[in-house]
Amino acid sequence: MRTEKGAQLLSDWDMPDGLKHSWQQDARYAKQFLMAAQASHGGVERRAYLGFGTEEHPRMPGLVMRGYKWCEGRERVSDYWRVPVSAQQLLQQGALSSGLPIQAEAVWGVLMQVLQTAWVHDQGVDHIELWAVTEAATARGSVCLRLYETGLCVADVAHALKRLTSLWPSCALVCEKTLQALGPRALGWLAAGTDGAGLPFMTIYCEAGPQDVQSLLEVSGVAYA
Questions:
Q1: What is the pLDDT of residues 74-125, one digit of tens each?
Q2: Residue 214: helix, strand or coil by DSSP?
Q3: What residues have CB less than 8 Å from 172, skipping those under 6 apart?
Q4: H helix intervals, 67-209
Q5: What angle is formed at CA 53 by the lines to CA 49 and CA 56, rounded to 5 degrees?
Q6: Which of 12-16, 55-59, 115-119, 178-182 has the lowest mean pLDDT?
Q7: Residue partners of 96: CB distance under 8 A and separation at least 6
Q8: DSSP code at position 155
Q9: Among residues 18, 99, 30, 16, which one has the least CA distance to residue 64?
């Protein structure tokens, strides 16, 4: 949505004042405004993103998106930086994890398999982007593959994603069921890295519908219209 609508919506969503002030400063340069909610063991985290488009943030070259996130008194800001590398160059390097923490090498290997699948099937590889994600106040660090224009769905790369069951055996059954349920949904992003505690993680972002949004917001106690 357009950023002009953002201020009132974020007030309604109880965005902390400090985050709101920072958001208003950066919103002057943004081309796009997004809102999101993500469930976790600590509650539902609310998020507001500013996208700066191909021009990037004028005061921070390379910054293409900034995410403001808050939940139960905790708040953080994630910065998304475009890495100037093509899909072909990534494949030639043989790994996505170059220069990144060794703990997450296995999950970054899953990303490489997905990239190889897109390349073999000639699925919009020219549109694939690699972004690096940082958080100044935490040890969190990750990379994202942007896959929107590839036309890939979750089922297309399930063979690679099933490697996650070997990385987290205790979650194997849930992972299998999740991949099966998400199979026909369009793939948007894959993110992998280490969280604020230094533990490896991987996140699958795919197409969602109104019913998904309504279910999540009902859990968070937020009205949905």
A1: 899 999 998 888 888 887 776 565 555 555 777 888 888 888 888 887 777 8
A2: helix
A3: 165
A4: 87-93, 105-120, 158-161, 164-167, 172-182
A5: 95
A6: 55-59
A7: 90, 108, 109, 111, 112, 115, 130, 143, 192
A8: G
A9: 30
Closest listed residue to residue 141, CA positions, set 96, 67, 204, 192: 192
Q: Which of 28, 16, 14, 35 is nearest to 59 (CA)?
A: 28
| Strand 74-83 relative to strand 63-71, pairing | antiparallel
> What three-state secondary structure class fits 44?
strand
Q: What letter does residue 62 receive in the DSSP assignment?
A: T
Instruction: Report pLDDT digits (tens) over 199-224.
Output: 888 888 988 888 887 776 676 665 55
* CA–CA dist 225, 221 (Å, integer): 13
> What is the rounded distance in angstroms from the CA atom of residue 54 to the CA atom of residue 35?
20
110-138: string of b/e by CB count within 10 Å (b at 16+)?
Answer: bbbebbebbbeeebebeebbbbbbebeee
pTM of this structure: 0.81
